[in-house]
Amino acid sequence: MDLMRNQNFVGLLLLWAAGAAGQVADPRNIVAGAVIPDESYADQPYIVKTNDGAWLCVMTTGPGAEGTGGQHVVSLRSTDRGKTWEKAVDIEPGLVDGRPAREASYAVMLKANSGRVYAFYNHNTDNLRQVIADKPAYPDGLVRRVDSLGHFVFKYTDDNGRSWSRERFDIPQRDFEIDRKNPYGGKTKYFWNVGKAFAYKGAGYVPLHKVGGFGEGFFTSSEGVLLRSGNILTEADPNKLTWATLPDGDVGIRAPQGGGTIAEEQSFSVMSDGSLFCVFRTIDGYSAHAYSRDGGHTWEPSQYMKYADGRLMKHPRAANFVWRAENGKYLYWFHNHGGRFIREHPKRRTMAYEERNPVWLSGGVEADGPTGKVILWSQPEIALYDDDPLIRMSYPDLVEDGGKYYLTETQKDVARVHELDPKLLEGLWNGASAPSAEKGATVTFYRRSTGTDPGKADLRAGFSLDVWVSLPNLEAGRLLVEGSGVALRTVAGGAVELTLNDGRTENRWTSDPGSISAGKQQHIVAIVDGGPKVITFVTNGRLNDGGDDRQFGWGRFSPNLRSVDLAALRSGTGVLRLRIYNRYLRTAEAIANFRAGL
Questions:
Q1: Co-location of 385 and 506 in the same domain
Q2: CA gap 255, 222 in Å, rounded
Q3: Cβ count near 401 (within 10 Å)
Q4: 3-class SS shares of the chain: helix, strand, coil, % to 5
Q5: Do 335 and 371 belong together in one domain?
Q6: Are 239 and 226 within 8 A, CB to CB?
Q7: Strand pairing partners for 384?
Q8: What secondary structure does DSSP assign to 243-261, as a single string?
């Protein structure tokens, strides 16, 4: 059976088996998505809608792991919104005469006015097999992974992705300070790209992430630039395309003042007033952003991303993308942990790559700022997850089609398409209505399978406790809610702790220190989400993110917790109101309850 088709078959088989076993499906679980076929490695599945209505996906793939021989870029077409895919077409081959071809990696696309689609990517044209790297990360001073250097090139398709130009075209890059300081003085350039190309005021823009060197953490320094072509949207002859490297000067988009040497994977959006917004990853424990008011020639000083309430948005060294939707609002993909626990770590360039599961989305809306439009960001929701906490999904794309929203993602072995819940998006953009409370019941997280497999059927259940309290003091150990296997109590430091015990396993998670105070009404929502097996707290309208006290504001509970009984819950002293929900509340719903008041 053809490998590409076989992977789709396996994905469908797994979903059928889950249903047969009585598993409850959760569309946020990445295994529920539709598989985009690959060879083995799968990276950066980005989508453009072609003039014939198809989805055209470019992806970096290969027979081995990331960065190994045979890595190349392909395209695939889908005419049913990612449910099935036509046979992959090589943009660059993986093999030539039975041997691995020169590495071609990390493609992004841009559609011209005619419908022509360009694919831009790294190409190891000079067939370098090693370059100078830092010791002791590379004991002999050489790195032999060569997919993030060489030439930045493009090919194009005039038939909606069914075939690509035979000729490959180089894009000139202007030398920046970071290039001149590399071991080759810029004659060999280090770079790659994950940022989506875009059109702006009649020109085409392609992001690029310049790299200063290789060492601990692979890339040791990085910054972002834009390659601007003033005529790519209208010029048919690829040899006549003109290119300029932005911003002006010889320094790209870097981390905020006082931050580290890493500022990479820049993602750009065009705003309603013509400003450009850029978000990127750092090793500082937070993502960062910058605005340009002059088409990318200059940029306002970079700042760390913040929620609308002023709190910094935690994020590790992982892709974090922003997309402007057709309705003029924004979606932001990130991972919601980090802070000083990454920034102060002695190995932050390396350890910051971890923990990309689950994926969180924040919604953005424009507002007036002192120099132009700015984006205000909502508190986030869990959008995607995998049951294995070590799976790292990343490098997404957003596709709108027929009024629906889809995300692509990859965990480097399997790439998928996921349709987003419109209620989740509505809450991110417009807030939610306060939900009606429900009667307490027994919440069962798993049971014996009803299929031929006698194992566990995960029911993806959850519940939420919504409590208004007024406490004369913050004495630890005060029971606020108590029942069979469930307790919510105060703990030292101005926090509350949720305990879950089914007689077999016990789980605990606390709200952030200082999240509640004495002497006035306090609102506490404890959310137990049995999809990703995550506990979150929303206190006084704020989703707890750990602040400076811990890397994670959210915590995992055991997948072996079988059930809890909510029917016999009792309120303790100081509790003004208790509402019980036999499901997890979204962050926006918990905030709506706070805003509705007691």
A1: no
A2: 9
A3: 14
A4: 10, 40, 50
A5: yes
A6: no
A7: 359
A8: -EEESSSS--B-PPTT--S
Element (H, E) at 568: none
- Domain hosting 219: range is 111-252
Considering its fold, how many domains does the chain have in total?
Answer: 3
Residue type (1 letter), 338: G
Query: Cβ contacts of residue 369 below 8 Å, gap of 6+?
Result: none
Tally the C-alpha atoms within 13 A of residue 217's C-alpha that lie toward its C-beta.
26
Q: How confident is the model at residue 551 (pLDDT cuts 50, 70, 90)?
A: very high
Is residue 562 assigned to a domain?
yes
Asked if residue 294 and residue 237 are part of one domain, the reply reads no
241 and 121 co-located in one domain: yes
Same domain flag for 209 and 319:
no
Answer whether 362's CB lies under 8 Å from 377's CB. yes
User: pLDDT (tens digit, 9 = 90+) per residue, 313-370?
Assistant: 999 999 999 999 999 999 999 999 999 999 999 999 999 999 999 999 999 999 999 9
Rg of the chain's alpha carbons, rounded to an integer?
25
Q: Is residue 211 part of a domain?
A: yes
What is the DSSP pairing of strand 131-132 with strand 142-143?
antiparallel
Structural domain contains residue 94: no
| 428 within a domain of the structure (yes/no) | no
Name residue, tokens 């998006």: 425
Helix (H) or strand (E) run with residue 563 in it: strand 563-565
> Are residues 584 and 511 part of one domain?
yes
Query: How many Cβ atoms from other residues are within 10 Å of residue 504's Cβ?
Result: 10
Q: Which residue has the tokens 């060569």?
A: 146
Q: Are 301 and 260 in contact (CB under 8 A)?
A: no
| Residues 240 and 270 both lie in one domain | no
